[in-house]
Amino acid sequence: MRMSEQENKKGMTRREFIRKGGYVAGGVVGGGVLGGLITQQTLKTNKKGETSPQQDNGKGAEVSYQRAMMYFSNPEEFTVLSQAAERIFPADDLGPGAIDLDVPYYIDHQLAGTWGNNARDYMLGPFYPGLETQGFQSHLRRNEIFNQGISKIQSHSQEKYKKKFTELDEEEQDKVLTDFEKGKVKMDGVTSKDFFTLFRMAVLEGVYADPLYGGNRDMAAWKMKGFPGNQMSYLDKIEATDFLEIEPVSLTAHMPAQKKKSNG
Questions:
Q1: Rounded distance, CA 252 to CA 216, Å?
Q2: Long-range contacts for 55-62 (Cβ within 8 Å, ≥24 apart)?
Q3: 130 to each of 13, 136, 191, how far by Cα in Å?
Q4: Within 10 Å of residue 92's Cβ, how many Cβ atoms?
Q5: CA–CA dist 206, 170 (Å, integer)
Q6: What does the pLDDT look like over 67-82, one tens digit per residue?
Q7: pTM over 0.90
Q8: Please, how many CA atoms are within 13 Å of residue 68, restricted to the half-sphere of its CB?
Q9: Is the peptide bond preceding residue 126 cis, with omega within 30 degrees of 0?
């Protein structure tokens, strides 16, 4: 997506803006990610960022059992989600984008859990349009908003360019998503601007959350920002007078080692 004209005039790239702004810090992010994945899939990407879930044959790259669709059952919808996420956080010379960071899987898993079902939110009426400072007020669950949003991305692409969203070039995809950002696309029960805001927030959470939740593969986003991750303590570094570059640590590093039982 394009940044504001003022930011573009300053010559600041999208990735630099996010890195310097520190919009989202790593760590624990709310939402219920369910365990126990049944199928294993990986994203196949090309230079354009096109994605298609395919069954992993167990050869080549290391298999991650988190790379499976828990919420979406339609691969085409998942591909639209993936390419839209990549336009919000694209790969560049500074590091990987949303697809290579497994952000689409993070969002998919969140939509399947408590966050996507608004399990912890008050969901009874009445519902009134909120002020700008209040955010959107809707009777729809977040996964219902995403369902409708992805469908609208597809239909708006057809109306605007007579092509599927996945067939558009990057500039055309940006223009489609910009229409959502500006609230120009008609949606039911929620505005397209609210959907875009929710989607962008989910993308950035998936980029910077602990890998436990399915995104931020190999802590690559933390490494780009120089974020140390989930350190247990800084006592051994508190006396340092120079700036320290600390290798990031995920929550999985704090799990007790599983000792193998001896057969002897």
A1: 13
A2: none
A3: 32, 6, 11
A4: 12
A5: 21
A6: 999 999 999 999 999 9
A7: no
A8: 15
A9: yes
Residue 10 CA to residue 3 CA, distance in Å, equals 11
Q: Is the dihedral of CA 19, 180, 187, 147 positive or negative?
A: negative
Task: Provide the pairing of β-strand 51-55 with 41-45.
Answer: antiparallel
C-alpha neighbours within 13 Å on the C-beta side of residue 248: 23
What is the total residue count of the chain? 264
Helices of type H across the chain: 5-9, 14-21, 75-88, 103-112, 142-161, 170-181, 192-208, 220-225
Contact 180, 153 (CB under 8 A): yes
Q: Cα(66)–Cα(218) distance, rounded to whole angstroms? A: 13
| Model confidence pLDDT, tens digit, residues 97-152 | 999 999 999 999 999 999 999 999 988 888 887 777 877 778 999 999 999 999 99
Q: pLDDT of 21-41, one tens digit each? A: 444 443 333 333 323 232 333
The alpha carbon of residue 210 and the mean position of all alpha carbons in its chain are separated, in whole angstroms, by 12
